[in-house]
Amino acid sequence: ITEYTDYPRALRSKPSVGPYAKPNLERIASLNPDLVLASRDGTPKEVVARLRKLGFPVVTVATESLAGLRESFPIVGMA
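and the corresponding structure tokens:
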């Protein structure tokens, strides 16, 4: 989750990886995720490349529109 995630309420108690557009790579790595979701329009390409170089699977999805979100659902589901 990012520092601004507040819904659903249960996520408030989960560790944050920082701001949406500038996530903390060390924090992400310390959580040892099975999958990292990145936003095509918000996550810097350098961050995605670095996460992949560190060996984490990263799925980049569209979040800039409702149509993009709709297209992203099956992609995330498959991942």
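(Above: one complete record from the training split.) The radius of gyration is 13 Å.
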